[in-house]
Design brief:
The protein is built from 9 helices and no strands. The chain is mainly α. The chain has one domain. Helix 1 (2-31) crosses helix 6 (143-182). The N and C termini lie far apart (46 Å).
């Protein structure tokens, strides 16, 4: 019976976690207009700009290197098989479609989760430990509006932008492979790329990136708000934020891919 009790307890905890994420998401959406430019509060908007720099600009070099490396690996692995059939040209389709549909949003989400999701959890967890969150509530300031909303606005703006850059670097690394292997000019390569991908492929990838940004921000912030204890609890929450957000991102990617496939969008 102990086994069933443990399983039941884990199921209840997971459902409670999903319920807490849903409540936090709704609170974050309601607070989002108050951090927008012009119509929002100036201090919140400036905080969102700082978060955009931290989430987007600082992550661009890492995303560029990972995308270029992954694009070259994908081209090399694809060429190893396609060369047998004299179909080396289809390496372009493999790289272009693979990045716009799947690899671009997923690689970006993994990088942002490791860099920013953990930082969100550590920052908010430290604020909880030092009673800064309680001080905000004492001053009648909503922690969701003050802490979470600027991060959420920054993520839903910058993660799609980073996804586009990831796609570009990955596809351009494929151009480097095709030039080294077949001396194909960049203009011809880009023409084949444009013939390979459709607008719906790009839009599906950007839709995924918005969902991934939402997951990363809310999981990271929720793990920070749930910190109880001292510095060790902050460390555990940071680890949990990265693990949970990565798991949920991959699960969401599976859901979106299956949905697009069944809806004949891919």
């Amino acid at each position: 019976m102990k086994v069933f009790e443990d399983i039941g307890g884990a199921v209840v905890q997971n459902f409670a976690y999903v319920g807490g994420l849903s409540q936090q998401f709704l609170s974050g959406v309601r607070a989002l207009p108050r951090v927008l430019p012009i119509i929002g509060k100036r201090g919140r908007w400036q905080a969102a700009i700082r978060q955009m720099a931290a989430i987007g600009v600082a992550a661009l070099p890492m995303i560029a290197i990972m995308a270029a490396s992954t694009g070259m690996i994908l081209a090399l692995q694809g060429a190893a098989e396609l060369r047998r059939f004299g179909a080396l040209r289809y390496v372009i389709d493999l790289v272009a479609v693979g990045f716009t549909r799947e690899l671009g949003p997923l690689l970006t989400a993994i990088v942002v989760s490791g860099r920013s999701g953990s930082a969100f959890s550590a920052e908010i967890g430290t604020m909880v430990v030092t009673s800064e969150i309680d001080a905000l509530r004492t001053m009648a300031l909503d922690p969701i509006e003050f802490v979470l909303a600027p991060k959420y606005l920054a993520a839903i703006v910058m993660v799609p932008c980073l996804t586009i850059m990831c796609n570009a670097f990955g596809i351009l690394s494929g151009a480097g492979f095709m030039y080294l292997s077949t001396k194909m000019a960049l203009g011809i390569y880009l023409k084949y790329v444009l013939d390979s991908i459709y607008l719906r492929d790009v839009l599906c990838g950007l839709l995924k990136s918005l969902a991934f940004a939402t997951i990363i921000v809310h999981v990271g912030c929720m793990e920070g708000f749930r910190v109880r204890g001292g510095p060790e609890a902050v460390g555990r929450s940071t680890t949990s934020a990265v693990v949970r957000s990565t798991f949920l991102v991959i699960s969401a990617d599976l859901f979106f891919t299956a949905f697009f496939y069944l809806a004949r969008l891919q």
